[in-house]
Write a structure and sequence with these properties.
single chain; alpha/beta; five-stranded mixed beta sheet; two-stranded antiparallel ribbon; 9613_t:CDS:1; RNaseH_sf; nucleic acid binding
Length: 343
């Protein structure tokens, strides 16, 4: 993306206009960036595919009453099991991430460190229908080479395989988990023994039965379906356990309600920040518990409203207007197009 933008700016530096730049970003960049799963899928196409998949899953998932206190299970078709959405995400909290504005005597200014300070990363698995998620399903690490290190795909896989799935099955026996992940390169990583072209040795020698040398590109052409259908490490773990997995659309954080949860948590940590790593270790767990289940369900309903708006063909700005107008409704009504004067 960076190289494309630099090339465009360099070529049009004497006749650059904001409208033309926006059109270029929309037409050339957003429509050409591939999903980071080793497959060149158009971002817009994947966005629509994601919305369709979530609509199908929603028919098999519980809902809640208007006051967001009572769980309402759907009438399931024969042979189907109840599906439960399980959110997964990570967020980093910094010791020096305090409030940006504060009161101070005239002529005096508080001196603050320019560095972000020590950091803590919280990995969460979130369920809308549970007040308390077992602490084993979550993970807090103190980032840094001299602390707990850094969170990698192997850590995600171990947490998912050894803890999250088994905890879900104990809490919801007989149900199917739909694990939802951000569409990041870390979550899309392959297993060490997966078929990945970039990890292959192209200098290896192979021959046909008659002794004729066989080039590596010929092997790749013969085995192309195996490479195309190669699944990521997380996909393999979840599907082998009998559950389902889905990755969110790129560039649409409003569809993932856990992002709103992180925002609410960070409001709390910033308000109680005293610029020390020792205090941060105490503040983060309390801030995580400060957001009520009702508030989390409100975040979820807002994300579902965005999905409904996009399915109706609304743009980002139109969807934001519709979500705000119908925030107390269970869904965006179909007549929203008339309110927006869209034919």
């Amino acid at each position: 993306i960076k190289n494309k933008l630099l090339e465009y700016l360099s070529f049009h530096k004497f006749k650059l206009s904001i409208p033309n730049l926006c059109d270029y970003v929309h037409d050339e960049i957003f429509s050409s960036v591939g999903i980071e799963t080793g497959k060149t899928i158009n971002v817009v196409e994947y966005h629509h595919s994601f919305l369709d998949s979530m609509a199908q899953y929603k028919l098999l998932m519980p809902d809640w009453s208007d006051d967001l206190t009572q769980q309402i299970n759907p009438v399931l078709p024969a042979g189907e099991r109840l599906h439960i959405l399980v959110m997964h995400d990570e967020s980093v909290f910094y010791a020096n991430d305090g409030q940006r504005a504060f009161w101070a005597p005239i002529g005096k200014q508080s001196l603050r460190s320019k560095s972000a300070g020590g950091s803590i990363m919280q990995q969460n698995n979130s369920l809308l229908f549970e007040q308390q998620i077992p602490t084993e399903a979550c993970c807090i690490i103190h980032l840094g080479n001299n602390r707990d290190g850094y969170w990698t795909i192997s850590d995600v896989a171990q947490q998912l395989k050894n803890k999250a799935i088994s905890i879900f099955e104990a809490m919801h026996p007989g149900c199917v988990a739909v694990f939802a992940f951000d569409n990041s390169s870390n979550h899309a990583a392959f297993a060490n023994n997966a078929l990945v072209v970039s990890q292959m040795n192209f200098k290896s020698e192979m021959n046909y039965p008659d002794g004729t040398p066989k080039e590596m590109y010929q092997v790749l052409e013969e085995r192309e379906p195996d490479f195309v259908n190669q699944k990521s490490l997380l996909e393999k773990i979840v599907e082998e356990a009998g559950h389902k997995i889905i990755f969110y659309s790129k560039f649409h954080c409003e569809l993932n309600y856990i992002e709103s949860y992180w925002g609410a948590v960070k409001v709390n940590t910033c308000a109680n920040c005293d610029y020390s790593f020792k205090s941060l270790k105490n503040i983060v767990p309390m801030a995580l518990d400060s957001v009520s289940l009702i508030q989390i369900r409100k975040f979820s309903r807002r994300s579902l409203h965005y999905m409904s708006a996009y399915r109706l063909g609304l743009s980002v700005k139109q969807a934001a207007f519709a979500v705000k107008k119908y925030k107390s409704h269970r869904r965006i009504p179909n007549n929203i197009l008339e309110d927006l004067n869209i034919e």
